[in-house]
Design brief:
Helices cover about 20% and strands about 30% of the residues. By secondary structure, the chain is of the alpha/beta class. The strands form eight sheets. Strands 1-19-21-22-18-14-17 form a seven-stranded mixed sheet, with helices on both faces. The protein has a five-stranded mixed sheet with strand order 9-6-8-7-10. A five-stranded mixed barrel has the order 23-26-25-27-29. Helix 5 packs parallel to helix 8. The longest helix has 20 residues. The chain is elongated and about 90 Å long. The two termini are about 35 Å apart.
Length: about 450
C-alpha cells in the first residue's frame, strides 16, 4: 500500500477490525436504541379479546335496527362493563350494557353504539358523555334510548386485529425505538436480546486546553473537541464518556487510557497525531505492546498505526487496537473541523458496526447529489478528497458552502448541516456543479 491512504482504504481497514458487540438480555427500558439479535414472535393475539373502541352501549343488532331520534330503540341497561372487567353480564334481547373504551365485549352483544348516539340514560336529548360511575351509579341501570342503528361488529376491535398469535412481531436487526419497546411490552416481553449500545470514551489532548467556564490565560484555549465528539457519539447511538483534556505527556496519556479501558468498547482521541514535537498521542501509542498486551504467535502485535490520508481536512489519522481486549482506538486530528469530519467519516461507521447495524457504512448518513450554490469557482487540492461545510436546501436541491476550507473554523461548522464532497480528481468546482453531499444535520 502507498505511504498515504485513501479515505476508503482507511475506512475499510477500520470496519474489517471492528466487530459487533456480543448480545445480552436487557430489560426493556435499557434496550432502547439497541439492535435486536433474534426474531420475536407474537405469543398471544393483540388485542387478546374483542373489545370496544368507544364509550357507549353494547347491544344486539336486531334491537337497534331502524332506530331514529323520532323513534328510538328503548333498551334495558343491565350493568357496566369497564376495562379490566371480569364476570361479564350477558346481553339478551331488549337489553344493553354500558361499556367503556377497551372493555371486553360481553356475551350476546354484537355491536357498540357510541354514547353520542343515545340519550345516555337520561331520558332527554342526545348525550355528550356518560355520567361518572362514582357520582351517578344509577347510570348502569334503567333504560337507554338509542337513536341510530348499528351493524354487526360496529365499534368493536376484534381479537387479533392488531397482531395474531404466531405472527412475526419484530425481526432481528430491528433498532428498538419507543414503538418497538411498546410492542414488546404489549405482547408480554419484559426483556429483549440485543447488542448493547457501545461505550465510547472520548478524550482530547493538549496542555493548552482548559475546560469551558475556566479562565483563559495567555496561550490557552477551551476544550471543545471532547464535548463535540461525545455529543456525536451519543447521536450515533453510543453511550459516551468524556474525559477531561490530557496534557502533552506520554506517560499521563498512557495512564489515562489504561484507566478508561475498563469501560470502553471504542476509544476516540483527538489531537496529537501529526508530526510536531509535542504530538503526544502519536508518541505514546505508536509502540506496540503498550498497556501490557502481548500478541499471540503468528498474530500481529496490537498497537496504533498512524497514517496520512488523501483528504482535507483530516490528513493525519491513527487506528489500532490496544489493551488485553484489543479495544479499537481511533486517533483523530486536533483541529475542531478535522476532528468532527473525521468522526463522521470513520467513528460513526465504527459505532454502527459495534451496534450490529446492517449496511455499514452505506446508511450511516444520508447521501445525495446537489448543485453547489456559489457565485465563484471553488478550488480543491488535487489528489485529495475535500469535505467542505455547507447548508442543504431540499426544495431547491442545492447546497451552499459556509465558511472557508480552514480546519479551525468551528463557527462555520456550527451553521452547517451537510458536508460537500469534492472528489480527488477535481481541483475546481464551478457554480451549479453537482457533487455528492453528506447530510449531518
Amino acid at each position: 500500500m502507498s505511504t498515504t491512504w485513501s479515505v476508503d482504504e482507511h475506512l475499510e481497514d477500520i470496519l474489517q477490525s471492528v466487530h459487533p458487540l456480543d448480545p445480552i438480555e436487557l430489560p426493556l427500558p435499557e434496550a432502547q436504541g439497541c439492535v435486536l439479535v433474534e426474531d420475536v414472535m407474537v405469543p398471544v393475539a393483540l388485542p387478546p379479546f374483542d373489545n370496544s373502541s368507544m364509550d357507549g352501549y353494547a347491544v344486539r343488532v336486531a334491537d337497534v335496527t331502524g332506530a331514529t331520534e323520532e323513534y328510538p330503540a328503548v333498551l334495558t341497561v343491565i350493568g357496566d362493563v369497564a376495562a379490566g372487567s371480569a364476570g361479564l353480564p350477558t346481553v339478551g334481547p331488549g337489553q344493553a350494557a354500558r361499556i367503556m373504551t377497551g372493555a371486553p365485549l360481553p356475551p350476546g352483544a354484537e355491536a357498540v353504539v357510541p354514547v353520542e348516539w343515545t340519550d345516555g340514560g337520561t331520558g332527554e336529548g342526545a348525550a355528550t358523555g356518560m355520567r361518572p360511575a362514582g357520582s351517578a351509579p344509577e347510570g348502569a341501570s334503567g333504560e337507554v334510548r338509542v337513536h341510530r342503528p348499528a351493524e354487526a361488529g360496529a365499534h368493536i376491535r376484534p381479537r387479533g386485529s392488531d397482531v395474531k398469535a404466531g405472527d412475526l412481531a419484530l425481526a432481528a436487526g430491528t433498532v428498538l425505538g419507543p414503538p418497538q419497546i411498546g410492542l414488546l411490552a404489549a405482547i408480554g416481553h419484559g426483556t429483549a436480546k440485543v447488542r448493547p449500545r457501545p461505550r465510547v470514551v472520548v478524550l482530547s489532548t493538549g496542555s493548552e486546553l482548559v475546560q469551558p467556564g475556566e479562565e483563559l490565560t495567555p496561550g490557552r484555549i477551551h476544550d471543545s473537541n471532547s464535548f463535540a465528539l461525545a455529543a456525536a457519539a451519543r447521536d450515533a447511538g453510543a453511550i459516551a464518556y468524556r474525559v477531561g483534556a490530557v496534557t502533552d505527556e506520554p506517560d499521563a496519556l498512557r495512564a489515562t487510557i489504561e484507566d478508561q479501558l475498563i469501560r470502553a468498547d471504542l476509544l476516540v482521541t483527538t489531537g496529537g497525531v501529526s508530526v510536531g514535537a509535542y504530538d503526544v498521542v502519536k508518541e505514546a501509542l505508536s509502540t506496540a505492546g503498550s498497556f501490557g498486551e502481548e500478541a499471540e504467535p503468528d498474530e500481529a502485535a496490537p498497537g496504533v498505526d498512524f497514517r496520512k490520508l488523501d483528504m482535507q481536512p483530516g490528513k493525519p489519522q491513527g487506528f489500532g487496537a490496544i489493551g488485553p481486549d484489543r479495544t479499537p482506538l481511533l486517533a483523530l486530528p486536533g483541529n475542531p473541523v478535522s476532528s468532527y469530519v473525521s468522526f463522521e467519516l470513520f467513528a460513526r461507521p465504527a459505532i454502527r458496526a459495534l451496534r450490529g447495524l446492517r449496511d455499514v457504512p452505506d446508511d450511516a448518513r444520508p447521501r445525495l447529489r446537489a448543485a453547489v450554490a456559489t457565485d465563484r469557482t471553488l478550488t480543491s487540492p488535487p489528489g485529495k478528497r475535500q469535505f467542505l461545510r455547507g447548508t442543504y436546501d431540499p426544495e431547491a436541491g442545492t447546497v451552499t458552502p459556509v465558511g472557508g476550507a480552514g480546519s479551525h473554523l468551528i463557527g462555520a461548522l456550527a451553521l452547517a448541516d451537510a458536508l460537500i464532497v469534492v472528489p480527488e480528481d477535481t481541483d475546481s468546482v464551478e457554480p451549479g456543479q453537482e457533487l455528492e453531499v453528506i447530510l449531518i444535520g
